[in-house]
């Protein structure tokens, strides 16, 4: 078998407001590229071509233009925010290229030019809603960064609360990178909701955690117990950025570094050997790691690195990932992943409070996931659940 050579674009923000996440994604990709390139049986050798947009929205389009048009690349792993993905998607469609998108996201999108290796809404927000309703109550306060990720997740949560007779006590949005958040933290403490759901990202997120903890303490409130903060994006890479207020927060994710399995033991050992300075391995790093391995498997199956051949080969491909078996859904190029709920610790990790018994097929449009049903829901008969 002739081993193919492939330049792959890497467009991740390793500087800027959400650099901590971008650096962990880049590290996960680099780890997988090294493994693929060292595997004598692999069908491809990967050569990364990296551009750092610095968290600047307009820079993503410029980076993709340079890679897809100027250099003629067909595969790019990149983007963290949904706004950046939305911006660059027309470039991939116009140039018959694949974006390997390694991030949880809000759903309500399917493109033949995107492979989604992070969690879809039925794999993070719906499990989190069930957990909050079962353990904390029906009155939520929503605060987020002002873009589509926050708007859509808050809409889903608001509709879920409405279905069960709950209420949204307050809802605010801030520009990405905004850190003047003391007033909203003070208002939330005054309102005393059952929980806070945050979709803030980067520096805004870290400052909010610190300010809410401080305002609660000043009011004599044990914040983690009485005012729990829940998120679908908080990860191990970000806990060191929060400092003394990092412990006690809820996160809904398909991967935590504390998963007990041989595959995760191997992954975290490699991670700690090379990237311990970035914190513990996290979901975003694992999603990038999975994307690279799926790409290599697709090249082997397709016998080509071309867009049409790879697109046709992707459906049903499986990879034994650190989180467990991951399968690409041929209908929508999202992945079958296993939902989990964790609580952050003082050690930069998450205690796993809940995990679904098996991976769950993606439902990006929430056509079969009930928003208000607090009991776990199985996939309909035509969707296979991997056990």
UniProtKB/TrEMBL annotation:
<dbReference type="InterPro" id="IPR028082">
    <property type="entry name" value="Peripla_BP_I"/>
</dbReference>
<dbReference type="GO" id="GO:0033218">
    <property type="term" value="F:amide binding"/>
</dbReference>
<dbReference type="InterPro" id="IPR039570">
    <property type="entry name" value="AmiC_PBP1"/>
</dbReference>
<protein>
    <submittedName>
        <fullName>Aliphatic amidase expression-regulating protein</fullName>
    </submittedName>
</protein>
<keyword id="KW-0614">Plasmid</keyword>
<dbReference type="Pfam" id="PF13433">
    <property type="entry name" value="Peripla_BP_5"/>
</dbReference>
